[in-house]
Amino acid sequence: MEPAGERSRPTLTGSLSAVGFFSIALGSMIGIGWVTALGSWLRLAGPGGAILAFALGGAVMIPIGLCYAELTAAIPVAGGEVAFAYAAHGSGRAFLVGWFLAFGYLSVSAFEAISIARVLGYLVPGIDRWPLYELGGSPVFATHLALAASLTGLIAWFNYRGGSTAARLQTILLAAFLLMTGCLVVFGLTRGTAGAVPSWFGESASGPLAGTLSVFVTAPFWFVGFDTIPQSAEEASSRVSSRQLAGLIVVSIVAATVFYALLIFAVALLGDWRQIASSPLATAEAFRMALDSESAARFVLMAALFGLLTSWNGFFLAGSRVLFSLGRGAVISKRFGAVHPRYGSPSVAVVFTAIATLTGAALGPGAMLAFVNVGSLSIALAFLGVCASTSTLRTRLPKLDRPYRIPAGRTVIAAAFAGAAIVLGALLIPASPASLRWPVEWMIFGALCVAGFIVWAAGAADRGSETEPDRAFAILGETARLLDRPRSTASAEPHPESWRE
Known about the structure:
Layout: H1 18-30, H2 33-36, H3 38-74, H4 81-89, H5 91-123, E1 131-135, E2 138-141, H6 142-160, H7 163-191, H8 208-216, H9 219-222, H10 228-231, H11 242-268, H12 273-276, H13 282-291, H14 294-328, H15 347-361, H16 364-396, H17 409-428, H18 440-458, H19 460-464, H20 468-476
Antiparallel strand pairs: 1-2
Helix pairs in contact: 1-7, 1-11, 1-14, 3-8, 3-11, 3-16, 3-17, 4-5, 4-16, 5-6, 5-14, 5-15, 5-16, 6-7, 6-15, 7-11, 7-14, 13-14, 14-15, 16-17, 16-18
């Protein structure tokens, strides 16, 4: 293989701190579900069952996170899962992982752009103005689109100026969010009483176990976000070691688990959770009832607003890095691999992510919920792909330097496979409360697969213009030296992965 120094490779500026990485991951995970979904958690499982469900959900995510940790420390390049899949299986699998992952991240980014108006609607009455059209039974207002466009532009601007700028924004937002929610938790723990809780588990006719399992199968999706660290690993400053990146992935999962458990517990102590659960914004209702104050509810919603912005910024950053990785390796159009000469950011990928976010936001809440559910399936497929890549690379690249190595590797990797299968099963098995809805969501998933085939076919010219050794170096950097790839004698597309065969 050609020495790396003989070929230029677009790289992103390395300036992200450990605090920045942690802020991106945790901020992406805790988002706004603790306000909008808490009522359903309580109705299904009760506070005790919900806490147990999240504890089990965190436990399921840890082995998956450990797989991410080993590969991120070993291959700290932009795009994370794309690079892992390419090293293990080649361009085709890398595209599949990247395509589904990008859709998942961009659908979440678009959903946050829609949700911002819903949260502000409770804080600023009268924001629903000038309906333009209706999709999926929900009207789309001009004011909502203007708000989505303004904030998308702001987040895109921070990301366009580089990962460190986006991380500073994330750190500020997360600090404000944790300060506000910390006050809520402390108030609930000090002012509430465990004796006032009517029961700790749900009162479903199927029994408390069924309710707890109903929350458990959805819990892993509230942890999605730790995987934003691998997307931006290339942008780590010289002060952040590869081993630290691995540790931050696991720490962020543990921190999110503790956050959800403490918040549910604190809310349960404030009053009759059966009454609280009937509210569409159960957390805000709990504090309104406890303090008999609308200001308390507004304070909760302000905290939720910060949480929404941290999630939005984190997934926006992650989505743009996936597209950049695919473009840098000429798996899709090379334009996506462009780096801004001044800011060292994936400028074209950032602009495209902003456009995709606004396009999704224009669909309105009626249509976007279905896209987010399909996006969850897409991210779950990426989880499974990383588990497979971890196992494969241990065999194919035994000489790969692994600053962090999973303890009891085979056992943990097997547990990660099982956890990823649970997540997929929750979305695919019709009896699951988290399963895709027929026919709309399955039609969207089918359309996504067809669109992926079209994009793959359209990228044939760019893929054919790149020799396989050059593609390997573009995606993997110095790690490409370990791959046993014969030099291509032609740039044609027919057998881009013949070295695997």
